[in-house]
């Protein structure tokens, strides 16, 4: 990636400005916020398209992180690196108030782009096919807009640009461990969502996205001649029985009113048509919206695998790779974001779509700090929008601007003079 000049990782300390006292009129602040994002709209689109041309895979986002750090520095924020391929900007107002964290994911996917866009990926086999380039651009816009309003705000605002969201284990874990949430009162995030048309924003309390776990099953039998299967222990037949029984796990033992998905996505075995192989592997994913169901289904899966294998005198091993938990929105933070949608985009823009069975490691942040996650419409109405993670994935760029407006508004609501803390028990920054 031919990035702009890199900004060194050392923190740039910015002294809080002396200036006018914070404004008393909240409506004036919200109007200033909206105007600032509108003024920055060409920049948001330019940043997004630059990033789209130069995608980087999870934990390889070196140039992406440098690009973000340089812009944050240019905005006048304190800049640091939670890790080598992430970035954080901090806006300190110098006045007591809430500590608000915002998080955007920055990694791309191993997908060969087939959109034909003028700003399509320059990296063969790598593409921003999930909208993370738009997430970065939106949060950069929020950061610059709020920096322009700094003299009218209170507290501290942290802009966390996180690597490796698409992997398990994900980049949220080491980013959080670096201390980005220390003393934070609220955390906010968003996902540009193509199944939802641009101009709409889904805000809902409770579950928004599913937990995301993966299983790898190995069945070990006894190899031999395919013409004499009675002299073998056939791991292919055992694996097939395991796959069938996994389907029964969902359809016959799980409450149909409590969503659960167990998808087998691959079976691998053998090599020659006249040989019964010695082993077979089965792998897939588990998704649920309930942490109790999540724990239960893992144990039941292990029981099924073990039971079927023993019934056929085979051996088995089941490895579970636990990913992010359920994205679960705090009620008070959700209500605040709903108000921001109404204020910035109008009542008609506010919707509440059912939870989706995709996952996101924003949930790790919510385990530490009260937070909420928006799904911001980015689909083109009446168009055949390609799904996320597809080679033809595109998004309506107005969604980037809408997401920035809502997030910036929510921060203003939290950091305006006289704002009441959403969770007083969490305390405020000194």
Automatic annotation (TrEMBL):
InterPro entries: Amidohydrolase, Bact_exopeptidase_dim_dom, Peptidase_M20, Peptidase_M20_dimer
Binding residue positions for Mn(2+): 130, 132, 166, 191, 389
Stored Pfam families: M20_dimer, Peptidase_M20
Cofactor(s) needed by this chain: Mn(2+)
Alphabetical keyword list: Hydrolase, Manganese, Metal-binding
Cofactor note (record): The Mn(2+) ion enhances activity.
Enzyme class: hydrolase
Location of the region described as Disordered in the Swiss-Prot/TrEMBL record: 1-25
GO molecular function: aminoacylase activity; metal ion binding
Database matches in Gene3D superfamilies: 3.30.70.360, Zn peptidases
EC number: 3.5.1.14
Domain Peptidase M20 dimerisation positions: 215-310
PANTHER family: METALLOPEPTIDASE, PUTATIVE (AFU_ORTHOLOGUE AFUA_6G09600)-RELATED, PEPTIDASE M20 FAMILY MEMBER
Stored NCBIfam families: amidohydrolases
Designated name of the protein: Amidohydrolase
